[in-house]
From TrEMBL:
Matches recorded under InterPro entries: RmlC-like_jellyroll (IPR014710), TehB/YeaR-like_dom (IPR015392)
Taxonomic superkingdom: Bacteria
Taxonomic source organism: Shewanella algidipiscicola
Protein name: TehB/YeaR-like domain-containing protein
Residue ranges constituting the TehB/YeaR-like domain according to the UniProt record: 12-92
Length: 98
């Protein structure tokens, strides 16, 4: 996927989530607010990142992420994530313009 643009800084990092403690919001279709990039970083296992044009409809993007891989979700981009393996561990970093 893409990169966080220059001039943006990490403003928040979630706890490390596993298959049994993923907040429901991440499995549902959601988006980050205007001006915020979301970086999903897989520590172990695998997950699927789905991207959507809007709140309804089929996924326009499906990205399988493995350990040490990341995906970036742009501001206001609808997306969801689904764990694929029992050993999944991931965290999410949020970036805003400095």
């Amino acid at each position: 996927m893409s990169c966080v643009p220059k001039g943006y800084v990490k403003c928040k990092t979630t706890a490390v989530f596993g298959k049994d403690n993923i907040p429901a919001i991440y499995a549902q279709r959601h988006f980050t607010r205007s001006g915020v990039y979301e970086q999903i970083h897989v520590i172990s296992g695998e997950l699927m990142f789905y991207g959507y044009k809007n709140k309804q409809g089929e996924a326009e993007r499906e990205v399988r992420l493995k350990a040490n891989e990341t995906a970036i979700s742009h501001p206001k981009y609808w997306h969801s994530i689904v764990p694929l393996t029992d050993d999944i561990q991931f965290e999410i970093h949020f970036y805003m313009k400095a």
